[in-house]
Amino acid sequence: MERTFAIIKPDAVRKKLAGPILTRIEEAGFLVRGLRMIQMSRREAEGFYHVHRERPFFGGLTDFMSSGPSLVMCLEAPDAIRKWRELMGATDPSKAAPGTLRKDFGASIDNNATHGSDAPETAAFELGYFFRGMELS
To answer: Among all residues, which ones are annotated catalytic?
Structure first.
């Protein structure tokens, strides 16, 4: 079993899509090992997305991620990182495969409903950013 980090972003929470997305996560065979609704401050979003600090989209991304509540999750499944990224689909919903979360629920490359870790090291950092060890069953 492997664990990964996932976010249902503010755009999806605002549109009341968290329930349908969670249903799809469970139907895909993931176990939700940690779940919390949060609203990141701008500073927390900047810390979380620090690897993108020099990119031109950093300010817009951190503004967006601190614009409203999100659901942060620890998901568990065999090959969870790859499986979650496959379920999410391409970052740009217009290029995402049919049936993926971003294709079905995302509006744009900036408002694409979900986030997920891209590697084991990233997952470890991201899970640790939002969950203390004892919080994950």
So the answer is: 115
Task: Tell me the backbone φ, ψ of residue 86, rounded to 5 degrees.
Answer: -65, -45
For the stretch 69-118, pLDDT in tens is 999 999 999 999 999 999 999 999 999 999 999 999 999 988 999 999 99
Percentage of the chain lying above the pLDDT 70 cut: 98
Do residues 2 and 33 lie in contact, with contact meaning Cβ atoms separated by under 8 Å? no
Instruction: Tell me if 137 is assigned to some domain.
Output: no
Number of compact structural domains in the chain: 1
Per-position b or e across 17-32, b if 16+ CB within 10 A of its CB: bbeebbebbeeeebee
Domain that holds residue 76: 2-132
Query: What CATH number is given to the structural domain containing 111?
Result: 3.30.70.141
Q: Look over the chain and give the mean of its residue pLDDT values, rounded to a whole number.
A: 94
